[in-house]
Prior knowledge:
This protein is α/β, with parallel strands linked by helices and 284 residues long. It has helices at residues 3-13, 62-70, 100-108, 118-121, 128-135, 163-174, 203-212, 229-240, 250-267; strands at 42-45, 53-57, 76-80, 85-86, 95-96, 111-115, 139-147, 150-157, 179-181, 192-196, 216-219, 244-247, 272-274.
Amino acid sequence: MKAKELYAKLATDFEIERLKDDWSFMTFNKYIDPEFRKRYIGLVLDNTDTVNKVYTATMPDLDVIEKLLETNETDVLLFSHHAMGYDATIPGMPFYDIVTDYLKKLKERRISFYVLHLPLDVNGKYSTSVTFAKHLQFEIIGECCKQEGRKVGVVCKTNIQSATGLAKHISSMLCHEIKLIQNGDDIIRDGRVAVAAGGGSVDFVARELIELGINMYVTGCTRRVPTLESVTEFHRITKEEKINVIGATHYTTEKFACIAMVEYFEKLGLPAEFIEGKYFMEDL
């Protein structure tokens, strides 16, 4: 498939002209497409005119890039939710640049790189919160968490009656430990759970949960960050309002969208494959 046709299709389907993201803290060099700086969405590395296969990933971590290079394939596209690698063990900002040596190798192999961060968070068939909630076998009954004028979270219904029971269910479904911050009663009010994948521990979300009358919230990152006022405020509000919070890591809560995107590309006639990355318990 012609690369430009694929990029145009992605831009239309995910309405990127209506959104603007922020990856301004990236290190920009000669390998990165200068057009990416206009809205920080879309093509990051323009290295091929033809795309014969797509590899999807949640973050372009070093191990993900290495797995891609080990395929020895050329004229392929790396599609990712994030534009930078992620390592929660790094003090401060957990995101890091793809090292120059790898950027050079990607260019030599004619491997392009395309990013949909906010557009993939916005609720839809392939979005992060929707795919995560469906993996947890929740019934989606509404939306929440408004960002840039669009909803990126979902309100769900579950038959599980308690926060502790829900924590056990989620841990079982994800095949790794999670964290339950039990701020209030164990009973899930009206069986309703709010879900926002990724870094959803921010103050405006906590206030929206109060308005919705929801006392059970599931997200990715729950780590307290003293330097981020919005995160500190989130934890203050959820504690005072007795809202229980489950953290399931940044990576794991968002990976199901990138797995679902395999189907998206296959429907376009392109072979596609998901590259598994790594989750960090330090998110919790």
